[in-house]
Write a structure and sequence with these properties.
The chain contains no helices and nine strands. By secondary structure, it is mainly β. It starts with 5 loop residues before the first strand and ends in a 5-residue tail after the last strand.
Length: 109
């Protein structure tokens, strides 16, 4: 049974093999990201430095790089790994059931 807090987002085969897709979940714009190891993560889509879409950035290992100024964020924790960003992005819980991706939205900071 699926928890009420989780929202179905997509099927796994709708995500890139490595990369990100943008989604609107109850009015909140997020990036659903598949890392190089195949794990799936969900973060707020907006870079905390440049206010641009992280779903348009490059994914490497378990990080996403903002295309505008090069800030990198850890997909597991949301913490910035390189400047100019100093504030983390919000990380949301993801669960996979079969081939379906579900996300539970975290509180906004």
């Amino acid at each position: 049974m699926i928890d009420l807090d989780f929202i179905r987002v997509c099927r796994l085969d709708e995500l890139p093999s490595v990369g990100a897709a943008r989604a609107n979940l109850d009015g909140r714009i997020v990036s659903i990201v598949r890392a190089e190891d195949g794990s799936v993560h969900c973060i707020d889509d907006e870079c905390t430095h440049g206010r641009v879409s992280l779903s348009e950035g490059d994914v490497s290992g378990c990080t996403v790089e903002c295309w505008l100024h090069g800030s990198r964020f850890d997909l597991r924790t949301g913490h910035p790994l390189s400047p100019p960003a100093t504030e983390p992005v919000v990380v949301h819980s993801v669960k996979i059931e079969g081939d379906e991706v579900f996300v539970a939205l975290a509180e906004e900071n």
